[in-house]
Amino acid sequence: MAQQDTDQQHAGVLPVDDEGFVIDTEDPEERETAWRERGVSRPITVVGNPVLHKECKDVTEFGEELQQLVADMFTSQRTAEGVGLAANQIGVDLKVFVYDCPDDEGVRHVGVVCNPKLVDLPADKRRLDDSNEGCLSVPTAYAPLARPDYAEVTGQDEKGNPIKVRGTGYFARCLQHETDHLYGYLYIDRLSKRERKDALRQMAENEPRYPVVAND
Questions:
Q1: 53 is in an annotated binding site
Q2: Which residue, 18, 57, 73, 176, has fewest beta-carbon neighbours within 10 Å?
Q3: CA distances from residue 103 to 15, 40, 98, 171, 206 in whole angstroms, order as listed
Q4: Which reaction does it catalyse (predicted)?
């Protein structure tokens, strides 16, 4: 598999495999810790906050402000014990998400995607998985939701370089879930009215285990 040179890696670019997909499984603890140590934990916005219900703006500037946002996102994600976090979940109207997520084989994936777009999959890659899904912005609520068990996302890394990310199982669900966020969709928007009502009931009946932004 192809390996980027040292200078590129230092710049934040992940190596890629022979098909051009990022290798986000190397040194995951070291990379996540490096981001998190620079960040500040922010409270999580929850369903009802307007920023969660509209398409976010494209990332066009890849400077220090974005680097700090990414660091804060990794820190906030760890505080909330999540596996993925979109910028609008901490109130920022930008198309960027971070992830620290295992796949179904227990392999840990860590990375950053700006301006993500889900690749439309052919029918032979559309095997559905109807596992339970939850969301930091709908705290304490879970519901089964059918999604393809394989996903590909194109976008840019935190330096603006084009990237492709792919995942299977739980990690595929994470990639789809976080991309949805940045286009104004929560997972409960994909549920039936009855299932959505039940998820909101679960949320109302329990206390989140991390700081949240109260809706007015």
A1: no
A2: 18
A3: 19, 27, 15, 5, 28
A4: N-terminal N-formyl-L-methionyl-[peptide] + H2O = N-terminal L-methionyl-[peptide] + formate
- Using an 8 Å Cβ cutoff, are 186 and 139 in contact? no
Instruction: Give me the pLDDT at residue 6, please.
Output: 37
The per-residue pLDDT for 83 is 98
pLDDT, one tens digit per residue, over 110-140 is 999 999 999 998 888 789 999 999 999 999 9
Q: How confident is the model at residue 177 (pLDDT cuts 50, 70, 90)?
A: very high
Catalytic-residue membership of 178: yes
Q: Is residue 135 part of an annotated ligand binding site?
A: yes
> Using H for helix, E for strand and C for coil, what is the string for the chain?
CCCCCHHHHHCCCCCECCCCCECCCCCHHHHHHHHHCCCCCCCEECCCCHHHHCCCECCCCCCHHHHHHHHHHHHHHHHCCCCEEEHHHHCCCECEEEEEEECCCCCEEEEEEEEEEECCCCHHHCCEECCEEEECCEEEEEEECCEECEEEEEEECCCCCEEEEEEEHHHHHHHHHHHHHHCCCCHHHHCCHHHHHHHHHHHHHCCCCCCEECCC
